[in-house]
Amino acid sequence: MPAINTHFWDWIWWLTTKASIGRRDLVAQHLPQLFTQLLRPMGVGAVPATIESAIEPFIARRNALERQFGVSVDRALENEVRQGIARVLHV
After folding, report:
1. What range does the domain containing 82 cover?
2. Closest CA to 51 of 82, 80, 75, 21
3. Comparing C-alpha atoms, which of 27, 76, 83 is closest to residue 11?
4. Can you list the alpha helix ranges (DSSP code H) found in 1-91?
5. How many CB atoms lie within 10 A of CB 27?
6. What is the pLDDT of residues 13-43, one digit of tens each?
7. What is the structure's pLDDT at 90?
8. How wide is the angle at C-alpha 47 spanned by C-alphas 36 and 77, nearest 5°?
9. Each residue of 45-67: b (16+ CB within 10 Å) or e?
10. Separation CA 85–CA 64 (nearest Å)
11. 87 exposure class (CB count in 10 Å sphere: 0-12, 13-18, 19+)
12. Cα separation of 91 and 6, whole Å?
């Protein structure tokens, strides 16, 4: 779970940097890949349309999987990336 969490937030930050320079085409291209490679295997049911709409279902599934497997994932990277998103994208 920690590796999946890290990979997700790294990918989200990468998408955020592309969105911040107006590369919506890259964001649109990579959201389905994020779904196929990471979100769908976790049990998320739909391709996210935006960066923000990828985050909530990931968090819900991560939290459920933590409970299911009795593990805990550090939230430091998540907090850092979410603060960066708010700063960069003014969300």
Report:
1. 2-89
2. 82
3. 27
4. 2-20, 24-34, 40-42, 51-69, 76-89
5. 20
6. 999 999 999 999 999 999 999 999 999 999 9
7. 84
8. 75
9. eeebeebeebbebbeebbeebee
10. 24
11. exposed
12. 21
Which amino acid appears at position 74 of this protein? D
Question: Residue type for 5, please?
Answer: N
- Written as six digits, the tokens of 23 are 């590369």
Residue in this structure with the two tokens 């996210």, named with its chain if needed: 48
Specify whether the CB–CB gap between 26 and 62 falls below 8 A. Answer: no
DSSP states along 29-51: HHHHHHIIIIIHHHT--S--SSH
What integer pLDDT is reported at residue 75 of this predicted model? Answer: 98
Phi, psi of 75 (to 5 degrees): -100, 5
Q: How many domains does the chain have?
A: 1
> Among all chains, which residue has been given the structure tokens 């497997």?
69
Q: Which 8-state DSSP code applies to residue 55?
A: H
